[in-house]
Amino acid sequence: MTTLSSGFARARRWLRDHPLAFDAALALGALVAMICGSFADPGTGHGPTFGTRTPEPFSVLLMVLAALALVLRRRRPRAVLAATGVLSAAEYVLMDPPAPVIMSTVVALYTVASRTDRPTTWRVGLLSMGALTAAAMVFGSTPWYSQENLGVFAWTGMAGAAGDAVRSRRAFVDAIRERAERAERTREEEARRRVAEERLRIARDLHDVVAHHIALVNVQAGVAAHVMDKRPDQAKEALAHVRDASRSALNELRVTVGLLRQQGDPEAPTEPAPGLAVLGELVATFRNAGLPVEVACADRGVRLPAAVDLAAYRVIQEALTNVRKHAGAGARAEVSVVRVGATAEVTVLDNGRGSAGRRPGAGPGGAADGGPGSGGPDSGGHGLVGMRERVTALGGALTAGPRYGGGFRVHAILPVEARTGEPERPGTAGGTGLRR
Q1: Residues 121, 124, 127, 132: is their CA dihedral positive or negative?
Q2: Those residues with Cβ within 8 angstroms of residue 139's Cβ, 6 or more apart along the chain or in another chain
Q3: CA nearest 37: which of 53, 26, 22?
Q4: What are 171-229's pLDDT values in tens digits?
Q5: Could you point out which of 16, 148, 185, 416 has its C-alpha 20 to 30 Å from the C-alpha of 377?
Q6: Residue 129: pLDDT above 60?
Q7: CA nearest to 88, candidates 45, 38, 122
């Protein structure tokens, strides 16, 4: 059944991509139906009889011409309807009993109705119905109220109604799709606008804090350097002002950055930026908090650029924080850091029971809202955005999503060579747990 449905879907896609081939096949089917119908004699009994009549050569010519016209029904629908209508009327006027050339007109009328507006469908449909029904009633040998004449009226009317219904449904589906796409674009634009506004506000705050205090530090340092030899007391006073200004700047920076954090997130470190060399200490803090964490790393003989090392550490920190906050009781986490060619792959898995809807993300300073157990980018936080921007800025890629069977997975691919070209950081942050 699956193979049959997939084959049918492929056939539909091929026909959608090759409309002329579909129209040619439809024209061939209409020609076969018209020729088969021309061998039927309506008779006066309880139904038509076959084999008692054969179509005239002129009727066969009209049927072939009408079928050929149907090949162009998408490109010139009104012209095709006019041509098939004239051929059908000629058949009713010149031949008795007439061959069913009107089948081509029914197909052409459906095409016009499905590809134009309703007023055009009404005008063209009524004109076609009236002209062909009148030709059948006036020039045919059967009584005007015969079922063949009424069938002309019914088939042309149903063709126009079916085409109009298809056009209405297509327009309705297109309108729904357009509204959905417009809503998606609006939502994405609104999210980008809010992120840009927040970044601009934070940048202005940081600029005000840093510019004021750095300018003050610069002035006082210049005074201290100028009077250091001759008036050491005044130099000490200037250095005290430098110390006070720098402390005030640090405090205001801490407050500004703290606006990005949520309650319960780790405090901003005062030591130098960490890396994978201190991953064991990070994991130990989560284990002490009751979250079992397993780490899979190799030897520690490879150094990464400072930015890459810090990004890997932050991804693990934010993902584990989100597991601890949202994965639920009894959750476990697994962390792996592997060197694959010119990249380093960082993976954080958890088996938490918290659903996506109950596990919102944290702010940029804490766990990623797209991290393990998160609700995705729309769940209220900006952690996923922050993690992805941090990784993307280095030329890497980050994916986050639910795992099959429960839990969540965060996977980051980081290039060994940072895009920023930062030098490798010596000291504790230099050693990583990667395999060469």
Answers
A1: negative
A2: 92, 93, 96
A3: 53
A4: 999 999 999 888 888 888 888 888 778 777 777 766 666 666 677 777 778 877 877 87
A5: 416
A6: yes
A7: 38
